[in-house]
Specification:
The radius of gyration is 20 Å and the shape is globular. About 30% of the residues are buried. It is built from seven helices and seven strands; from the N terminus they run βαββαααβαβαββα. With about 230 residues, it is α+β, with helices and mostly antiparallel strands. β2 and β3 form a beta hairpin.
Length: about 230
């Protein structure tokens, strides 16, 4: 793990701004699929983002069709969890999900600026965002993968698999479990989710404490100083 002193700021001062932009489109697609954007802020700077999709299975179009048209990743999730005829959860998925809502929350992309990576902050921040957005949802799904393809090393298949597996382990810490293929599933009613949220809040506080202590011990004399 990179030394905490190299972080560009106190991680406990990170904040989330959650927004939904309604373009007032009176279409079945818009009634079915909502995009929620989460900005990760430190002071007045945006240092990352998380994208969620709330999929309403009981209104608008067949959710499988809508997700298929949106992207390959969301189609992958739809094929794993939803019945292509009804657009509702399959019997197999339903059997593993307590009924606490009718919608599906898809965590699509989690990104942080490079200086903030390597400390588990993505999972901590995503957990907080999930808690804000999961009301009325029966399931939360994601498909772990690499979003930043700028590194040449990720062109190697072995390295790609290693990084993808590391990302998946991060989501397993939140409570996600592999459901089918690369689709991971989490129930909003999971006790593990609530327990992990508490643990991750403690982790964030600890990261902030260690960072501040590192800064206090890393004060160098200014040029010309005594």
């Amino acid at each position: 793990m990179t030394e905490l002193s190299t972080l560009p700021g106190d991680p406990s001062e990170l904040r989330l701004r959650i927004s939904y932009t309604d373009d007032l489109a009176d279409t079945p697609q818009a009634d079915t699929l909502e995009r929620w954007d989460v900005s990760v802020l430190h002071g007045d700077r945006t240092v990352g983002s998380i994208t969620f999709y709330r999929v309403h299975l009981d209104r608008g179009m067949n959710a499988v069709r809508v997700m298929e048209e949106e992207s390959e990743e969301r189609d992958e999730i739809a094929q794993a969890l939803l019945d292509p005829i009804t657009g509702s959860f399959t019997e197999d998925a339903s059997s593993s999900l307590p009924y606490v809502g009718s919608s599906l929350l898809v965590m699509d992309k989690v990104t942080l600026d490079a200086p903030w990576r390597g400390h588990g902050l993505g999972a901590i921040l995503a957990t907080e965002a999930i808690h804000r957005l999961m009301a009325g949802c029966r399931a939360i799904a994601c498909s772990p993968g690499v979003t930043d393809l700028s590194s040449d090393r990720l062109r190697d298949r072995t390295e790609w698999d290693r990084v993808t597996a590391k990302i998946a382990r991060g989501w397993e810490l939140v409570g996600f479990r592999q459901y089918q293929g690369n689709v991971y599933l989490l129930s909003p009613a999971s006790l593990e989710l609530e327990e992990q949220r508490g643990a991750m809040r403690g982790r964030l506080a600890d990261l902030g404490f260690v960072w501040r202590r590192a800064q206090a011990h890393d004060i160098s004399p200014r040029p010309g100083g005594g």
